[in-house]
């Protein structure tokens, strides 16, 4: 396998994440990433506004706005006497698109991939089975077109990411469950990172596995749709693990 680890680490859609166009948006991403990746520890008190503002080269106003955003994401807590402190990890909003994107850039992504696959296993097989029963004609056509577009992208991993997202998000929406439907958008950045770990050969091999899910949904067979999605997610876990393992080996050799 020939794969660019840095490219995979930085992969995200950018559609759901917080904008970096403003100064406070840049603070959000830089400070948030440091916290989520462990460069700033849980419970650690941040420097005062003067020091922190100087380190980011931004005004106090921009810094305060950035901290407000990170506070809303559950990463920070501000107190008048004790200052701004990093909240315990279990209090973070782990389904926040930015936090998911930052987690995908962590120094050791294995835990992230494991959590992502387990989360998808809990959600997507159910969504597929429901879609087989509830999907409208329009929703079936949407999922089918997403599959055709994946196939048309062929070995081009980057071109295949967007239709792959549409395929999985379309199934979540077709489930008819209003709690399941938004999950695709929430984890979009994480899915993008996972999809871009695929090599061209892996991408081609995944088409029949996706097709089995599509066929079961089109056939209105909920049990087959459930089982086919479990198989697809198992395939994704296997190639993610293999690619990450090879990347670590290559980094060890280069070091």
Mind explaining what this structure looks like?
With 255 residues, this protein is mostly helical. The chain has two domains: 5-91, Orthogonal Bundle (Arc Repressor Mutant, subunit A); 108-254, GntR ligand-binding domain-like (Four Helix Bundle (Hemerythrin (Met), subunit A), Up-down Bundle), CATH 1.20.120.530. Helix content is 67%, strand content 3%. It has twelve helices and two strands; from the N terminus they run ααααββαααααααα. It has helices at residues 5-9, 23-36, 49-56, 60-72, 97-103, 110-134, 137-153, 157-174, 183-186, 188-195, 200-218, 222-254, and strands at residues 76-79, 83-86. Strands 1-2 form a two-stranded antiparallel sheet. A hairpin with a 3-residue loop joins β1 and β2. The relative contact order is 0.13.
Number of helical regions: 12
CATH superfamily of the largest domain: GntR ligand-binding domain-like
Question: What is the first-to-last residue Cα distance?
Answer: 19 Å
The CATH architecture of the largest domain would be Up-down Bundle
Instruction: Output mean pLDDT.
Output: 87
Briefly summarize what is shown.
The chain contains twelve helices and two strands, in the order ααααββαααααααα. It is mainly α.
What keyword list fits this structure?
two-stranded antiparallel sheet, disordered N terminus, 12 helices, 2 domains, Four Helix Bundle (Hemerythrin (Met), subunit A), 255 residues, Arc Repressor Mutant, subunit A, mainly alpha, 2 strands
């Amino acid at each position: 396998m020939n794969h660019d680890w840095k490219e995979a680490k930085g992969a995200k859609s950018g559609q759901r994440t917080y904008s970096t166009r403003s100064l406070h948006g840049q603070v959000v991403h830089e400070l948030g990433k440091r916290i989520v990746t462990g460069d700033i520890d849980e419970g650690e008190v941040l420097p005062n506004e003067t020091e922190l503002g100087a380190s980011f080269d931004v005004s106090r106003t921009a810094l305060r706005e950035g901290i407000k955003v990170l506070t809303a994401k559950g990463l920070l807590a501000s107190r008048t006497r004790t200052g701004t402190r990093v909240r315990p990890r279990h209090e973070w909003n782990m389904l926040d698109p930015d936090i998911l994107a930052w987690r995908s850039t962590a120094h050791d992504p294995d835990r992230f991939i494991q959590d992502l696959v387990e989360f998808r296993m809990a959600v997507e097989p159910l969504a597929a089975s429901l879609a087989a029963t509830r999907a409208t004609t329009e929703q079936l056509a949407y999922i089918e077109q997403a599959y055709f577009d994946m196939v048309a992208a062929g070995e081009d991993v980057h071109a295949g990411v967007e239709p792959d997202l549409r395929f999985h998000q379309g199934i979540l929406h077709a489930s008819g469950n209003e709690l399941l439907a938004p999950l695709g958008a929430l984890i979009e950045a994480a899915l993008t990172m996972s999809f871009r770990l695929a090599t061209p050969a892996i991408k081609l091999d995944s088409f029949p596995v996706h097709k089995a899910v599509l066929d079961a949904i089109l056939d209105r067979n909920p049990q087959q749709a459930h089982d086919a999605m479990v198989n697809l997610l198992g395939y994704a876990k296997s190639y993610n693990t293999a690619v990450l393992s090879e990347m670590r080996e290559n980094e060890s050799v280069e070091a």
